[in-house]
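Task 17 of the worksheet. Students: predict the tertiary structure of the chain below and write it out as structure tokens. Keep your answer in the requested format; marks are given for formatting as well as content.
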Amino acid sequence: MDDVAVPAEIACVDCGGRCGLLSVPEPDWGFQPGDVVAYRCADCGDRWDVIVPDIETEN
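Model answer:
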């Protein structure tokens, strides 16, 4: 299974600031669908946990 591309930054839902990726991918297989990745907003400090989607079932 190929690893899934996870963005290094996302927009904060609360303040619109930049959230940086806190999670580290597994060295052997990277991020996989169903993994939970965490982001922290540089502006407001909120933490966001996001589930990596299954790109095959997204359409």
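Marker's comment: The CA atoms of residues 41 and 55 lie 25 Å apart. The longest strand covers residues 36-41.
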